[in-house]
């Protein structure tokens, strides 16, 4: 894995939020799937880690966002965690996977990936988490990849174009969207012809 992605471990992430402004709206759910690689160099989704998140003090929630996601904030089985605890619950298995694959940093894979990364970075900054394993600005975006591979940019259509089923009733759950995005990313990458890997320039540290 370290050779395949220049020291990066691809980790598929999806967040559900209280709106579109990562500086203002609350993080409500987060899920992450570190990817695995087999002896043939093919990628596969790893184990999902997820957490429901207690809205941080001072953040806002647009009721229209809850209508889309179906999140019930006071549901007795939601078992939400404070932001810092939720992040650590997700980051710990990511760091373990990085160590397993000898990767220096995780890189976020997502559908409209910068949306997820911006919310992740805002939450990390808000709660002062010091061990964020993700690259601060680089991503792999399945919108771009699916547009190239299938001519589709909407997640549901891209997943179906890749040959997987899509359950609209499960959509907008962080776990479901993350696992479907992971399948999509692996399918596209595994179909891509690989070439002999060259060593990165020593001066390129980004």
Task: Describe, in plain words, how this protein is organized in 3D.
It is built from 6 helices and 6 strands. The longest helix has 19 residues, at 83-101. It has helices spanning 63-69, 83-101, 113-127, 142-150, 155-161, 174-191; strands at residues 8-17, 27-37, 43-45, 49-52, 105-110, 134-141. It is globular. Strands 1, 2, 3, 4, 5 and 6 form a 6-stranded mixed beta sheet that branches. Residues 198-203 have low confidence and may be disordered. Helix 4 (142-150) crosses helix 6. It is of the alpha/beta class and 206 residues long.
Features:
single chain, 206 residues, alpha/beta, 6-stranded mixed sheet, 6 helices, 20% strand
Question: Helix and strand layout, with pairings?
Answer:
Blueprint: E1 8-17, E2 27-37, E3 43-45, E4 49-52, H1 63-69, H2 83-101, E5 105-110, H3 113-127, E6 134-141, H4 142-150, H5 155-161, H6 174-191
Parallel strand pairs: 1-5, 5-6
Antiparallel strand pairs: 1-2, 2-3, 2-4
Summarize the structure.
With 206 residues, the chain is of the alpha/beta class.
**Total number of helices:** 6
Number of strands: 6
SSE order, as H and E? EEEEHHEHEHHH
Nearest-angstrom radius of gyration?
17 Å
Q: In percent, how helical is the residue content? A: 25-40%
**Which blocks of ≥5 consecutive residues have pLDDT under 50?**
198-203
Alpha-carbon distance between the two ends: 18 Å
Structural class: alpha/beta
Largest beta-sheet details: 6 strands, mixed
Morphology call: globular
Overall pLDDT score: 93
Percentage beta strand = 15-25%
